[in-house]
Each structure stands twice: as structure tokens, then as C-alpha cells.
Design a protein that fits this description.
Rossmann fold; globular; four-stranded antiparallel beta sheet; six-stranded mixed beta sheet; 12 strands; alpha/beta; single chain
Length: 234
Amino acid sequence: MVIQTDRQASTGTTAGADGESASAVAVTGKPVLEVHSLGFGRNDVPLFQELDFSLAGGQLLLIEGDNGSGKTTLLRLLCGLLEPWTGDIHWQGMDIRNCYSNYLRALCYVGHASAVKHGLTPRENLAIARDLSAVDGDPDLDDMLQRFGLGRHMDTPAQSLSAGQRRRTALARLLFGGKPLWILDEPLTSLDAASRDMIRDLFREHLAARGAIIMTSHDPFSLEGTATARLRLE
């Protein structure tokens, strides 16, 4: 298993999706997330071993790789949903196993499956997500859904929505306050061009506020003007 990282990203330049150089903001300061010697596999066969990387506030890490290379598995490990074979994950200097409740308060995870209950409306789905999360303040769910273009559909059962509308319902969780770390599996799946542009703008806002993002993308992805690192699983 070969792990490749774009070392240029930390110095202010990162390779774009087309292989050309794209401008990026240099990241400085202590990492908020650190991964040391991480290893995991299936049926006694390793997916990856001795994986090391770190992420600072204001930085986006794009995890790339072919199907079956372990991208989703790595995200689930980072969320604490799986136990690694080897290694550890530190959040703000502490092993997440020793500060898991605090880590979960800082984390927003949206998986490849949107986890939207089809029998409930977008407002009801978002209310459940709010109640299950440690959310700062009392977010206005209607405003959140309006921003994601769901104002006319917030009371429509999700089973009657398009795949893109259900995906936007899931991604509206990103607007919950107090979540500095976003871990996203294929966040642009099923979205049209306008929705993808909206998500990119939201990413820029989060990074500008010193939040951090880890994501996978099946399609080529770049975010001009941000500090983006790339890690490839092979």
C-alpha cells in the first residue's frame, strides 16, 4: 500500500484536479488533528499501514483513491466509528479515545449515505440531527433549509424529494454551530452545478473561520484560494 501526500500544500501551493498548480493559503499553527502510524484492514488483509498525516485549522484534506482503497474506511476511523488495528488519532493533542465526547461535539460527519429518513420532512430530519448533536445555541432550522434551497420543500416528506434535495438536507447539518471539524464522504454526490458552487462557498467560509475539512470526492475537486492537501490511498 502506497500513501502519497501533496507536500506542496503546506507551503501555499497544491496540485489542482487537472494536475496544474492552484493558489492556496499557507497554513501555520499547531495541528488540530494528528494521525500516527494508522493501520487497518479487512479479513486479515491490510488496507493501509503506517499512515501519518496532520490537519490544521483553515486546511482542507482531500482523500483520493480508487474504489476499494479504503477512503470511506479511513473517514470512519477518523470519526471513531471503527477501531484501528494500529496507531492512534489525536484531537487537539489528545487521543480521541480519551476525549471522545468532546471530540464528537467538535465533529460534523456526513457519510456517503445521507442518513435522511424518507418518511420525515427536511425540517424533521434536521431537528433530529440537532437533538442528537451537541449544537451551540438554538439554530433556526428554517433559515438553514432556506440557504440550502429547500425553503419550498421543508415540509415535504423526503421520499418525495430528488436525490439532490435529500443530499442537501443532509449537508444542511454543516450549518450547526460549534463544529470546527467536518468529515465528509463524497459531499457533492447528486448535486447540480449551482448546489456544488454553494457548497464550495460554504467550505471557503468554514476554512476562513479556521475550521478544518476532511473529504473524499469521486470526481476531480479543487477549491481555489484555500489551503488544500491531498492524500492518496493506493
